[in-house]
Structures
1.
Amino acid sequence: MKSIRKQVETAPSAQFGGRRIALQTIERLSTYRRVLEDLQGQGAQYVYSHQLAEYVSVTPAQLRRDLSLFGSFGNISRGYNVQHLITVLSGLLGTSEIQPVALVGVGNLGRTLLAYGGFIERGFSLEVVFDSDPAKIGRVIAGRRCFDIAEAEAVLAGHPVDIAILACQPQGLQSIVDRFVAAGVQSFLSFVPAIIRVPPGVHVEMEDLSAKLEKLSFLVKNRVEEE
Amino acid sequence: MKSIRKQVETAPSAQFGGRRIALQTIERLSTYRRVLEDLQGQGAQYVYSHQLAEYVSVTPAQLRRDLSLFGSFGNISRGYNVQHLITVLSGLLGTSEIQPVALVGVGNLGRTLLAYGGFIERGFSLEVVFDSDPAKIGRVIAGRRCFDIAEAEAVLAGHPVDIAILACQPQGLQSIVDRFVAAGVQSFLSFVPAIIRVPPGVHVEMEDLSAKLEKLSFLVKNRVEEE
C-alpha cells in the first residue's frame, strides 16, 4: 500500500449485445433522455450534439461515443431528432411500458416515493407495498394496500416484480433482501445507509440524498472551479 | 457526426491543491465515508483496501488512487484505520461542522427533505425555507418558518447560505436561481427536471430519483451481468 502502482482500471460494466458498457454510460442515457424531454417541452425538434453535451455536462465526444454504442443517430446539418432519440432511449431503458415495482417501508420517505409523480411518468409503478408495522399492514396508503413484509414470498408470487425499492430501517434489511432475491426480485434501489450483499446477477443501486450535498460542500469549501 | 473520431476525453473536474480532481472522485469520497461509518457501526476498527473497494463497488486500485490524492493512509498489515479515515474524509467534504442550507419549495418532496434525518447526521441543516404559496408563507413547517420566495434577497442577506436545494415547480426556476446567485448562493442541488444555467464558479447537481430505476430496468431487461 506504500507505493501506488499504475494499474489498468476496470470500471463496473455490463455486457450488452456483445459489447462491454460502463454502468455510468447507462446512467448518462437516463440523463440524456430527461434533458431531451425538457427540450421537447420547450418546442425543440432537433438538437446539436455540442448543445446536448453542454446541457448534460459531458464532452461532445463522450455524448457521441455513448450514443454510438446503440446505433447511428443524428444528422450533420440539423443535429439529433429529439423525438426519435427519446423513443430510442426509452426502448433501451426498458421503460416504454409501465413496469411494477415493489416498495419496502412506508415511513416518511416511502410515502413520499408513493406520492412522487415522477416515477409513473418515467414508466415505474410502485404497486406492491410492504411494511412490518401492524398499524400500516392491510391499510390502503396513497392508493396501494400495504402488505405484511412477513408474507413477502406469497405476495410476490402473486405480484411478481423485477425491481424493489428499499426505504425501511436498516435492521433486518439483509434478510429481507435475501427473501426477495429468492422470490425472484432481480434488482434493488436502496435508500438505506447499509451494506447489502446479493448474489451475482442481482443488481443494487444505492441512493444517497446527502452525497450530492457533500460534493457541493467540498466544491464550495475548497473554492474550486469546475472545468 | 458520421465518423466518431477518437478524442481525448475530459471528464468534469475540479482543481484542488494544485491538482486536477474528477468530480466523480468527490462523489466516491462520500460513498467511502458512508460505508466506513456503517463498518464502524458494526464494530470494525480497520478495513483492508480490497474489502472497502468491494463494498463500494470500485477496484482496489481506484480506491487507493482516490485516497492517495489527499494523503497517505493505511497500514499494509492492518489496512485503513476506520475512525481516522472517517475524520479525514469529513474534513475534506467540509462537513465537520453543521452548515445551513436553503430549501426552495415545501411541497410533498420539500416536506420530506425537511423531515429527512440523514441531512443533519451528515452536517447539513435545512434552515432557510422558501415557498410562493400564500397558504405556506409565514407558517412554521417541520420546525422552520416558511419565507416568501419574493423576499429571497432580504432573507438570504440575514441568513447567508452556500447551498440551496431546489424542490419547486419548474416554472420560474431560472429566475429564482439567478436571484439566489446574485444573493451569494454558490451551489444548487436540483430535484427539478429542468435545465438551469449558472455563471462559472457556481455548481449545480441534478438529483433524479427515476434515473437509477431506469438503470436497474436496463440491466434487468437486457439480462446483463455486472462485471
2.
Amino acid sequence: MPEIDFWYEFASTYSYLAAMRAEPMARAAGVGLRWRPFLLGPIFAAQGWNNSPFNIYPAKGRYMWRDMERLCAERGLAFRRPDPFPQNTLLAARLAWAVPDDRRADFSRSVYLAEFAEGRDISDARLLASLLSELGLPADALLARAKSDEVKTRLRAETEAAQAAGVFGAPAFVTADGELFWGDDRLEQALGWARGKD
Amino acid sequence: MPEIDFWYEFASTYSYLAAMRAEPMARAAGVGLRWRPFLLGPIFAAQGWNNSPFNIYPAKGRYMWRDMERLCAERGLAFRRPDPFPQNTLLAARLAWAVPDDRRADFSRSVYLAEFAEGRDISDARLLASLLSELGLPADALLARAKSDEVKTRLRAETEAAQAAGVFGAPAFVTADGELFWGDDRLEQALGWARGKD
C-alpha cells in the first residue's frame, strides 16, 4: 500500500480541515497516512515572519476566516475562531509525539476540535489533559513524557524533516517519491499521485 | 444569468491556468464571466513586497513551479517558465482594456499562451502587436489607444476596484453578492456559489 506523509501544525486552520477528512479519504483511496505534526514557527521565522501570515497580511487574513466559515459550513464542521490566533502549539505538538503511534490521529483530531470547533485555548495543559483522559490515555504520564528529551528531540527532528521536504506551510502532503502538495484542497491530488505511482 | 468577476494579472502563473479553463466551465455552469485584468504590483507593494512572493520566499517558489508543471501536464497545457519572472505586464494589461470588450478573453488567452506555453517576453510591444494581428485586431491603433489617458485611468480604476473587493492575489473570483474566492483551484466553488445565490 502506498503511503503519504501528512504534515500538520496545530495552529493551522486549514490543517483542521485536512485532519477531519484525511483518514476516510486515504482509506477509500487505498493509501496509508503517516500523521506528522510539526511546528511552523521555526519555518516561518526562516522566512522572516514572527507571526502568522494571516495576521501580517490583513487582506489575506480576512479572506482565510471567511473561506474557513464557508468550507466548514459546506462540510458540516463547527467552526469558532480561537483567541488568541495563532495558538501556542508547542505542548500539543509534543503530546502528539508522546502518545502511542496508533493514537496520534485520534489525539490530533481531538485537539483540532477543541481549538477550532469550540474555540478553546490548546496551550492549556489542563485542557490537553482532559482530552487525553477522554481518549482513555494516561494524561499525567503523557504530560511528563511530553517534557522528556526524547519527545523534544523528536519534534525538533520532525520540523527539520518537514523543512527538508520543502514544506513551507500547513497542511502539506508528501508522497514516497518526494512530491509535495500544499493545502487541504490538494489532498485529493496527493492521494491520486500516491496511487498512480504505486 | 448570474455573473462573476474574474480578476487576473498577466504575470500570474495560476491566472494562466484559470484563463485557459474559465470560459467553458462558466458556460457549462450557466454563469457569466467578466474578464477583469488588473495589476498586482500596487497591491503587493501595499503589503510590503516589491517582487513576486514566489521570488521572495524560495521554498514557496520552488513549490509553485513544480505545482504548475504537474497541473499543466494533467490538463494537457504546455508550460514554459518565462524569463524574467515575473514579467512586466503593464502594456499587456493596458492593451487588454484597449481591445473591444468582446475580444478581451481572446486577447488575454493569447497573451498567457505566449508567456507561459512559449516562454516569450510579453513586455515586448512587437510581440503584443503580432498577437493582436493574429486575432484580426488593429495592432497600431490599439497600441496607441493603450497609451491614452482613458485606458491608463481604466486600468488604475480596475486595480483599485480589485483591492476594494478584497483581492490580494490572482486569480480571484468575486460573486455579485461580494464573496471572494482566491486561486484557480477555487473556480468550481465560485461558480457553485454564483449559481446557488441566483
